[in-house]
Design a protein that fits this description.
With 79 residues, this protein is α+β, with helices and mostly antiparallel strands. The protein is 30% helix and 20% strand. The strands form two sheets. Strands 3-4-5 form a three-stranded antiparallel β-sheet, with no helix packed on it. Strands 1-2 form a two-stranded antiparallel sheet. The radius of gyration is 13 Å and the shape is globular. It starts with 12 loop residues before the first helix and ends with a helix.
């Protein structure tokens, strides 16, 4: 969400299936990230920064998945 967090009690797997927005990265185990609200991604510092100034610490593998998702989204939009 842009200005809010949603905490889910239980498994996130079922919740992911209900969200059909092309800008949501659902490839991560514990996060669903709205890529339209990302201002920067630092693999070195392992941090994703959002438009509201909040930061999310993530591992390098998760950051790589997020970057790959964004790159594929950009590639698909250019055609």
């Amino acid at each position: 969400m842009k200005d809010e967090e949603t905490l889910i009690n239980g498994t996130i797997k079922k919740y992911k299936k209900t969200l059909e927005y092309e800008y949501l990265c659902k490839d991560l185990k514990v996060y669903i990230i709205n890529t339209e609200n990302i201002t920067s991604i630092s693999r070195v510092n392992e941090v994703v920064t959002f438009t509201n100034g909040e930061q999310l610490e993530m591992g390098k593998r998760s950051i790589d998945k997020l970057k790959k998702f964004i790159q594929e989204k950009i590639r698909n939009e250019s055609f």
